[in-house]
Fold:
Amino acid sequence: MDQPQATRGPSDDECLRCGARLEAVGIEEFRTGGTSGGWKLLFGELAELGENMLQLEVRACPSCRQVDLRVPPG
Structure:
């Protein structure tokens, strides 16, 4: 009887779309929370009190030019 073969998933450093090796771009900070639009206009810097900064590692695929974001290693 034939046993099903395990399919190999992409490694951590491979593009999920084309399988090419991802190149590290760096770690960027993204703003989360806070307010925008008219509230920012009315309240100025007070509107940013609820904002947090989220650090994400940015990696790019040189083949298909897609961007991959992940939490930086501890």
Remarks:
- The mean pLDDT is 81.
- The beta strands are 23-32, 52-60, 67-70.
